[in-house]
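Aim 2, interim progress. The first record below pairs a target sequence with its structure tokens.
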Amino acid sequence: MDLEVLPALTIPTSELSWRFSRSSGPGGQHVNTSDSRVELSWNVAASAVLSDAQRLMLLTRLERRLVDGVITVTASERRSQLRNREIALTKLSDLVAEGLAPEAVPRRATKPTRASNRRRLAAKEHRSTTKQQRKRPSAE
């Protein structure tokens, strides 16, 4: 069961490592006996499926999430270990896809239109008069 991140990138099962532990949260007595929490790890630095450009991109973009070149995601949302495995696979896939996504074109700053500026000032004026009417009437 390989993990398909993008049509051009599939992480083989042999590169993924799983760890299971007891999960906190809902489950009652069941939670004390089953290892439903899932940790999924993938070594980005030593992966054979990545090109050098992809590896460099992931290492720089995900550097806060990496520990010695290994990315780890956890899932303990569900009571079932199987469901948590699926959630962990989805989390890792989304994270890697996000790290490999092309950079967005930076926004070009523009001036506000004359009409939007008028609307903004009219709204400020309206708010000002509303607040002025809340004052206690003068003694005159």
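The second target in this work package is listed in the same format:
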Amino acid sequence: MAFWTAGAVGLMIAYLLGSIPTGYLAGKLLQGIDIREHGSMSTGATNVLRTLGKWPALAVLVIDVLKGAAAVLVARWFCPWLASQLSPTPPTAAELQVWVPWMVCLAGIAALLGHGRSIWLNFTGGKSAATGLGVVLAMSWPVGLGTAAVFGLVLAITRIVSLSSMLAAVTAVVLVFGLAHPLPYRLLVIAGGLYVIMRHRANIGRLLAGTEPRLGQSSPQLDSTP
């Protein structure tokens, strides 16, 4: 019972961390605008860059990455501690070894859903790439660094953020299977990667049509799916 209670609390915290509407708050605080009414209508760092500028976008990017990392840390450290406090018999090391990776998996997914479907924004939000990177970095830093490296390389070559994000998601899946990781971590990266790619479905159409804007280009109101 203690495991279930701690797990439920951890998932709720992970979702609420992910759902912090960083880009939306930046628009309101800096220019008094609803960023969902500008550019691509997304609350992510790319739309913040096009709408508000470089430094607000950098701040949003860093905070979004930290949201994902914090969700994993909650699952890895807070949930076991809470379970030990709620249970008259503290969980054994063997139980934690089995239980914690599954909690990390579910907390990571909850954070991604929170970012893309924020309760504070009527269940709209960003495309979850930055939050996903934070999840992967906290889950496994080698996978996270490899993912970030591919994102940076593709962005430097193409200057297309959506393509960089999707190829980074694919890279994370390849790396998590190429390195030794428990099954829950692999399931998390597969589910998270698919989710990020699905959130970019409108971008995929524009990439195929050759109309996807590059970094630094002004962006019209591209679509109504943030």
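The chain has ten helices and no strands. This observation will shape the mutagenesis plan for the next reporting period.
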